[in-house]
Design brief:
This protein has two domains: 87 residues, no CATH class; 137 residues, no CATH class. Helices cover 56% and strands 2% of the residues. Strand 1 and strand 2 form a beta hairpin. Helix 3 runs antiparallel to helix 4 and helix 4 packs across helix 5.
Length: 255
């Protein structure tokens, strides 16, 4: 009886979804089961009906073009855009153990230092390079090894074993709060001591409608992805380590 009810519910949902997309339910079923494709032109219409953000709409349409476009040139162009997009989407969500281990900017800096050609697998060298106490570095290194974010190569050198670049969003966590606080405290120090040509600090205060805040957050997410994608340009040697931090928060206290 439960199975029968579930099947009925699934059928009604499929019909409703097909109705919203303005296509026959049988066609939608064939598409979802991989028996039939959709044209690039139809993918644009579907993306609009789904009310997808611009970047998701483009991504969806490129996926469809690669699979079902008749033009080989259109397929190649779409493949190129998808490859470029995959580099920008190199950000990954951390698992809980990784979140607990990354409590300071020093942790991520150590992981990124391993990508430099002159990196030395020594706490003393790292401490001098980052201008922090060696005890802090040793504690961070131990924590990174324990959570398998840092590993030893066959020759004994250390290497970054994780593709992690950003903490998860929207998940309350004391360790994540500590991490962000450490970055903000470091930023204050850099404003005072770092030459202006080596840093960028921009702040703006603006009024906005509540329904557009989420769009502003998405713009920030896309900016972060594009900046991190610069590290994926394998033809370039990594020579230094930078920190990018962004904040968007309300100034008006409600109620």
């Amino acid at each position: 009886m439960v199975k029968s009810g579930d099947a009925c519910f699934h059928t009604l949902s499929m019909r409703a979804f097909a109705r919203d997309l303005k296509i026959p339910a049988s066609t939608l079923s064939e598409v979802l089961n991989g028996k039939k494709g959709i044209s690039p032109k139809r993918s644009i219409e579907i993306a609009k009906l789904l009310n997808l953000p611009e970047w998701q709409k483009n991504y969806f349409c490129d996926l469809v073009t690669v699979e079902h476009a008749k033009s080989s040139l259109a397929k190649e162009d779409a493949k190129f855009r998808l490859k470029e997009k995959s580099q920008q989407n190199h950000l990954k969500t951390m698992n809980q153990s990784a979140q607990r281990s990354l409590t300071s900017w020093v942790d991520l800096a150590i992981l990124e230092l391993t990508n430099l050609p002159d990196f030395q697998s020594k706490s003393k060298w790292i401490a001098k390079t980052l201008d922090v106490d060696e005890k802090i570095v040793k504690t961070a290194v131990d924590r990174l090894f324990q959570t398998n974010l840092l590993e030893k190569d066959s020759d004994g050198s250390w290497k970054d074993a994780s593709p992690l670049f950003s903490s998860s969003d929207g998940v309350p966590s004391e360790s994540i709060r500590r991490f962000h606080k450490s970055v903000l405290n470091l930023a204050i120090e850099k404003i005072e001591n770092e030459p202006i040509d080596k840093r960028t600090a921009k702040s703006v205060v603006f009024s906005i409608s509540e329904d557009r805040v989420q769009k502003a957050q998405k713009i920030l997410d896309e900016a972060v992805a594009k900046i991190v994608a610069l590290a994926d340009e394998n033809q370039k040697t990594r020579e230094t380590v930078y920190c990018f931090s962004s904040q968007l928060f309300p100034l008006i206290k409600k109620g």
